[in-house]
Amino acid sequence: MLVDSHAHLGMPQFNGDRQEVIRRAIDNGVERIFTVGTDMEGCRKAIEIARDNERVFAIIGIHPHHARHVDESTYSNLKSLSNDSRVKAIGEIGLDFFRNLSPRETQMASFREQIHLARELGLPIVVHARDAQKEVLTILREEGARETGGVLHCFSGGYEIAKSCMDLGLFLSVPGTITFKNSSRLRADVKKIPLDRILLETDCPFLAPMPFRGKRNEPAYVKIIASKLAEVKGMDFDEVARITSRNAQTVFRLDEEPL
Ligand SMILES: [Zn+2]
Ligand SMILES: [Zn+2]
After folding, report:
1. pLDDT at 257
2. What integer pLDDT is reported at residue 258 of this predicted model?
3. Distance (Å) from CA 160 to ligand 2 centroid
4. Which residues contact 112 (CB under 8 A, 6 or more apart)?
5. How far does residue 8's CA lie from ligand 1's centre (Å)?
6. What is the pLDDT of residue 72?
7. Percentage of the chain surpassing pLDDT 70?
8. How far away, in angstroms, is 225 Cα from ligand 1 center?
9. Do strands 150-152 and 171-174 pair parallel, antiparallel, or not at all (unpaired)?
10. Cα separations (Å) of 126 from 21, 222, 241?
11. For 85-106, how does the pLDDT look when each residue is reduced to its tens digit (9 = 90+)?
12. Distance 248 CA to ligand 2 centre (A)
């Protein structure tokens, strides 16, 4: 059993063949997919897909790229959407100081608000951090991420940030970049992280693993990421699949919902 802990199945790249993509994932042993909305419309779409597919769950939140569109109604809308039992986390939230598509202050305010919301709702968080590790950690600590639990998605290396997240009780999610030839530093860092803190993700349609780099990514490829992780860890594929899936169950509190 495999879990893709972070996919964007609602994106237009999947409009032509969404059901086939989900079917292919299941055929490749991916038993659960967490699809992430990044703005209000995307969140509604994520829930709709999760309602239509018993193996898909939704994660809803406002991505830092879209923070500048947030208004007073946004959080109450997210709150009412979260009443749907298919919603398992608030995300992806965080800071992106690489692309800076929203002003930094706005990103930080939105990140804080959504951690509050997760705490209020009793849901874990899915965190996006790009070129803003230090600021993300400060906000996670100040806003009490220890209480929500959750995952730093798309872990891109840096043992220090991994360690700080683990100290907060968070998990790290490993994407397809671990298969890239030039990712030896990421592999070295992942090797040091205990397997019982690791989740797998595709972040599809982005970041396809080798040999599909540059093409559209899809949840079926989480199998490739699991193989690579098994190689890096010197462990059996089955054990990596089992433990990372169990970790996803723990983070997203699915224990009460066996397939
Ligand atoms: Zn992200
Ligand atoms: Zn994402």
Report:
1. 58
2. 53
3. 22
4. 139, 142, 143
5. 10
6. 84
7. 98
8. 17
9. parallel
10. 23, 18, 20
11. 999 999 999 999 999 999 999 9
12. 16
